[in-house]
Amino acid sequence: MEEESKLEKLVKTSRKTGEGEDWIFSLTPIVVAFVFYIMFILSTEIEQKGLFIAYGAAAGIIGLESYWIVRGWRNNHGSTIVMGVLGIAITLGLLSLYMSFV
Description:
This protein is an all-alpha fold. Helices cover 80% and strands 0% of the residues.
């Protein structure tokens, strides 16, 4: 019997139903850390606080999306990998858009 390649596994493997709940719970530590980060930035004498908050938010979201890309690779969930890459692209696009206004 021929062993399936990684690409075939990524396409054929279905996701479990609790994946959405896992994603919501993975947001919790990021949100808590970001609240403390905002409190720290607002209490400092930094002139461009919005810039630091935007970079911090982008870094947190990209880190979370990277985690989901690795998780999708381990569990052979191609759609999770695609959504993670799209999430990173959207985050960088929004950051770039914000930077063009600042």
